[in-house]
């Protein structure tokens, strides 16, 4: 349909003169009353020119109207969709609008955390009666709930992985539909700290304060309570440090403590925590709990940690695997012989798995290249196209595309051919009429074909249709070769699923702004694929039209040619000022959308927190302000376009006055040519305006090419020519790894992150890599990155089963090794596509693996392997278990884990440890350890500090040594050897 509209669009302007002259010539010859003369021909061409633009606008408008209607329907469907409904009965709800009729509504008082909440009219903070809830009526997660949570006490919700602990919190916050029963809460707002910390673009301070009023004393108390003071002291800008996209400048633990600080700073009377303390060591956890206790006297403290939080509880709720409550009540009232309580109590007295008080190692790539968070193309983002950029575009487009653009110029041969035709008619009227008409028609057909192809050049780059004309697909291929998105490049590279040509150095893109990458693949490619071909097409047409129109004007009166230098000087001056202004405004228009997109993404990611805090109106206002700011450049651009129209109309009027004045005073020209000149003046103004506008769009689109060109040139291909050795398909057969005098550093670092590392790992050996975390660089992540060839070594060799890895393709190395990263990663697709991206396993094997990690029953009830996987409906523990199942399916002798169990609860950790022992027995295992308790049964520990090996040996033997550096590290994290 699009091709038909485009063909009709260009045919209306290119073939109209053909049919017009055909009918006129045939009638003139048959009636023997004349022939096609210069005056008639050029006057007719001028009339056709006048009709061309309205006809093109009318035809283009049909397609635009269709697009508008479809967009309107989508917006209408969204606006008519059911709004999120709070099913709770809260102090702010009314009995008339409530879904139940048995709730006396009371007015909620203003409450300060240091004051006793004014909730005397309520006996419980939450009351649920016969409640069943879930995401749909046929997918209930919580069933037949009957419980009451006391006011002003700490309630702990417990249960196995995937039982619905986090879902129950969402129910309490009003984020989950209730399909039966009632839920009554004494609050309408709560301070919510989700399991995955929510951060916004801005400083650490702005993230903590949020929309709450500023209070310096309270802020200092909250920062101290959340153990953030030491972190601020180590940051150059303290709490004013920008945290970057998705909190990129902070470690995971720091993000969680910032989220907790926001919850405390908000002074809400109800604090809802979703397992936000599980990743902390016992000392830091106790510090935070004591800090919370010192800040408040009465608080409803609701969270979903694992068993070791039972000692903090006043009230306990137990959920089973079916989402039903088995027991609930005050902890002290439960019998110590109770099986559930006894089990949990045993867990609470089990030695905690300690982590560093800094609880979080910033990725060393981030420590070394923190400055890469800024857009490296910022300096060229507003550059115009120079000759190199034009040459780059021509090279990427290819010779055939350039030929198509030249083919589109066939329409401008019309005037020349008509001139030859009319000259021939002056001597031999209507002689060789078929010849002239045939060539004229051929030029018209070439124009239609050339203009249609030129207009769509590159626009079908991402089209999936088999018959799509993919004239210029190289730009996205160049970008994809340089980058695969900031999130998935590291995961795909580490997991070995990167079969696409994504071979850039991953560290650059894991740090760079996510919005910058989206800008490259959205707005920049939109400019190149759609706007640039159309702008070049328009520029060529309007440029040639302007020349032809100017020639006709000067033919009408030769004396007007004397004004050519002055006219050109004026137009060049006008172009200079207009281009400089409009180009900047167009680029500002693009750049002004980034804050709007960022605001939108932040709102979507944190919508549950925003509603819980009661900040909906604040974020609505922020979105309105961002939208308003994003429209200012567009409005200013519209103003200067109106200014250009006025100036060009005045210029055109001046030329017309000069032409008529000269023609009437010096009567030595042809009156027919004077008429042609006047007809061309009518369209000359709009031609010049469209020409300057098209040139501005070309310059802006070439600026996008310049940014992509700069990006592609600065991103180095990680593969080198020496990586050509072929290895057997079963490699590595044994799993032996050897480091020999390995040193490595990041490009922007003058200090090596690995210094003369030498050690060997025997086949089937389990080795843990540990070291101090936080702001100091120990080298753990760097060592693993060196094995995966994501960090280039400066000297030494790394060999696997005797093969030097520097001689093997990096993609091949990652494909042969099994990697289990700390952060779960999913792609949009089915369960089967997520668990087996390479599609090498049978359904029976996939089901067997999912059963081993206790996930198959859950997935089977939700559609099985072919069902679309929605990771948002998986708990954090289920996500990590799913990724473990994916690692089991991947065949290999070497498993590399980056603290895959650091942020899961004890139940998930137990399952993962069991699966690791059973499924990976006999395989070489390398684990980056933050929790040292998890690696005490490993064969060997490798202790790193500042890129050097400090100590190595059996962990139990090292702990028995009073002078051991490993023992000192172990005890510094809150554990003692007596607990073993």
TrEMBL record:
**Where is the sequence biased in composition, kind Acidic residues?**
335-346
A single cellular component GO annotation: plasma membrane
Q: Where is the ABC transporter domain?
A: 126-346, 737-971
Where in this protein does the record put region Disordered? 329-356
Q: Which CDD domains match?
A: ABC_6TM_ABCC_D2 (cd18580), ABCC_MRP_domain2 (cd03244)
Kindly give the membrane topology term recorded for this protein: Multi-pass membrane protein
Xref: PROSITE patterns? ABC_TM1F (PS50929), ABC_TRANSPORTER_1 (PS00211), ABC_TRANSPORTER_2 (PS50893)
Transmembrane region positions? 6-27, 402-421, 433-454, 562-579, 643-666, 672-692
Is Nucleotide-binding one of the keywords UniProt gives this record?
A: yes
Listed A to Z, the keywords are: ATP-binding, Cell membrane, Membrane, Nucleotide-binding, Transmembrane, Transmembrane helix, Transport
- Entry-linked SUPFAM superfamilies: ABC transporter transmembrane region (SSF90123), P-loop containing nucleoside triphosphate hydrolases (SSF52540)
Ranges for domain ABC transmembrane type-1 come to 519-700
Q: Subcellular location, in the record's words?
A: Cell membrane
One of the entry's Gene Ontology molecular-function terms is: ABC-type transporter activity
Q: Which PANTHER family match?
A: ABC TRANSPORTER ATNG (PTHR24223:SF399), ATP-BINDING CASSETTE SUB-FAMILY C (PTHR24223)
Protein name stated in the entry: ABC multidrug transporter
**Organism encoding this protein:** Purpureocillium lilacinum
Q: What is the lineage of its organism?
A: Eukaryota, Fungi, Dikarya, Ascomycota, Pezizomycotina
């Amino acid at each position: 349909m699009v091709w038909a509209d485009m063909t009709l669009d260009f045919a209306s302007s290119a073939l109209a003169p053909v049919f017009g002259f055909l009918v006129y010539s045939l009638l003139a010859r048959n009636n023997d009353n004349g022939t096609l003369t210069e005056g008639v021909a050029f006057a007719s061409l001028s009339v056709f020119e006048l009709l061309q633009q309205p006809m093109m606008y009318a035809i283009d408008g049909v397609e635009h109207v269709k697009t508008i209607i479809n967009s309107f329907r989508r917006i209408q469907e969204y606006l008519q969709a059911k709004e999120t409904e709070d099913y709770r009965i809260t102090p702010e709800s009314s009995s008339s609008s409530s879904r139940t009729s048995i709730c006396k509504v009371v007015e909620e008082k203003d409450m300060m955390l240091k004051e006793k909440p004014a909730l005397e009219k309520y006996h419980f903070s939450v009351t649920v009666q016969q409640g069943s809830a879930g995401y749909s009526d046929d997918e209930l997660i919580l069933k037949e709930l009957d419980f009451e949570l006391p006011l002003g006490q700490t309630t702990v919700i417990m249960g196995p992985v995937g039982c619905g602990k986090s879902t129950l919190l969402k129910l309490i916050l009003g984020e989950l539909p209730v399909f039966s029963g009632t839920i009554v809460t004494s609050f309408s707002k709560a301070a919510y700290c989700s399991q995955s910390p929510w951060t916004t673009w801005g400083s650490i301070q702005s993230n903590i304060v949020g929309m709450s009023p500023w209070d310096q004393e309270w802020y200092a108390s909250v920062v101290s309570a959340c153990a953030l003071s030491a972190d601020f002291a180590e940051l150059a800008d303290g709490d004013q440090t920008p945290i970057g996209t998705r909190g990129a400048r902070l470690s995971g633990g720091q993000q969680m403590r910032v989220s907790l600080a926001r919850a405390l700073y908000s002074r809400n009377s109800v604090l809802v925590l979703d397992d936000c303390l599980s990743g902390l060591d016992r000392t830091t956890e106790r510090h935070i709990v004591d800090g919370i206790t010192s800040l408040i006297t009465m608080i409803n403290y609701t969270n979903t940690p694992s068993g070791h939080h039972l000692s903090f509880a006043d009230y306990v709720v137990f959920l089973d695997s079916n989402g039903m409550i088995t027991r609930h009540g005050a902890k002290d009232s439960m019998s110590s012989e109770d099986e559930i309580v006894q089990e949990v109590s045993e867990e609470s007295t089990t030695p905690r798995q300690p982590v560093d008080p800094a609880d979080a190692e910033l990725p060393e790539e981030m420590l070394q290249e923190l400055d890469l968070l800024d857009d490296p193309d910022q300096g060229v983002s507003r550059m115009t196209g120079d000759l190199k950029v034009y040459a780059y575009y021509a090279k990427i487009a290819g010779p055939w595309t350039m030929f198509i653009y030249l083919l589109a110029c066939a329409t401008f041969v019309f005037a020349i051919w008509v001139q030859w035709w009319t000259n021939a008619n002056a001597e031999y009227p209507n002689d060789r009429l078929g010849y002239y008409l045939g060539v004229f028609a051929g030029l018209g057909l070439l124009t239609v074909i050339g203009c249609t192809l030129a207009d769509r050049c590159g626009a079908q780059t991402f089209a999936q249709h088999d018959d799509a004309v993919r004239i210029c697909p190289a730009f996205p291929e160049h970008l994809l070769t340089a980058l695969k998105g900031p999130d998935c490049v590291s995961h795909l590279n580490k997991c070995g699923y990167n079969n696409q040509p994504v071979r850039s150095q991953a560290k650059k893109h894991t740090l760079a702004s996510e919005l910058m990458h989206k800008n490259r693949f959205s707005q920049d490619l939109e400019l190149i694929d759609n706007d640039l071909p159309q702008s070049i097409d328009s520029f060529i047409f309007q440029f040639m039209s302007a020349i032809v129109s100017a020639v006709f004007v000067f033919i009408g009166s030769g004396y007007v040619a004397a004004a050519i230098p002055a006219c050109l000087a004026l137009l060049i001056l006008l172009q200079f000022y207009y281009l400089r202004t409009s180009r900047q405004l167009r680029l500002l228009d693009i750049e002004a959308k980034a804050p709007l997109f960022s605001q939108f993404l932040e709102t979507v990611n944190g919508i549950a927190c925003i509603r819980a805090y009661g900040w909906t109106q604040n974020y609505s206002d922020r979105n309105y302000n961002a939208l308003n700011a994003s429209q200012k450049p567009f409005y200013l651009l519209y103003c200067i376009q109106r200014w250009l129209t006025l100036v060009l109309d005045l210029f055109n009027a001046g030329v017309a006055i000069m032409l008529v004045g000269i023609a009437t005073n010096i009567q030595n020209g042809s009156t027919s040519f004077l008429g042609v000149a006047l007809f061309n003046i009518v369209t000359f103004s709009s031609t010049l305006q469209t020409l300057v506008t098209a040139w501005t769009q070309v310059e802006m689109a070439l600026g996008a090419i310049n940014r992509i060109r700069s990006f592609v040139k600065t991103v180095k291909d990680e593969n080198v020519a020496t990586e050509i050795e072929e290895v057997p398909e079963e490699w590595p057969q044994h799993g032996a790894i050897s480091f020999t005098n390995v040193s490595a550093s990041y490009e922007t670092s003058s200090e090596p992150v690995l210094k003369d590392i030498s050690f060997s790992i025997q086949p089937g050996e389990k080795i843990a890599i540990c070291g101090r975390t936080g702001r100091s660089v120990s080298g753990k992540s760097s060592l693993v990155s060196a094995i995966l060839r994501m960090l280039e070594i400066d000297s030494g060799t790394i060999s696997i089963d005797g093969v030097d890895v520097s001689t093997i393709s990096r993609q091949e190395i990652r494909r042969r090794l099994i990697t289990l990263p700390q952060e779960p990663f999913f792609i949009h697709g089915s369960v089967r596509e997520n668990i087996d991206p390479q599609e090498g396993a049978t359904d029976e094997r996939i089901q067997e693996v999912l059963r081993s990690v206790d996930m198959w029953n859950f997935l089977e009830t939700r559609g099985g392997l072919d069902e679309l996987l929605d990771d948002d409906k998986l708990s954090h523990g289920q996500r990590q278990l799913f990724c473990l199942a994916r690692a089991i399916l991947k065949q290999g002798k070497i498993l590399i884990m980056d603290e895959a169990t650091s942020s899961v609860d004890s139940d998930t950790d137990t399952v993962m440890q069991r699966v690791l022992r059973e499924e990976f027995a006999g395989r070489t295992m390398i684990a980056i350890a933050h929790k040292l308790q998890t690696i005490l049964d490993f064969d060997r520990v490798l202790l790193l500090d500042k890129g050097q090996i400090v100590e190595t040996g059996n962990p139990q033997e090292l702990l028995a040594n009073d002078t051991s550096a490993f023992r000192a590290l172990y005890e510094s994290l809150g554990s003692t050897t007596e607990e073993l």
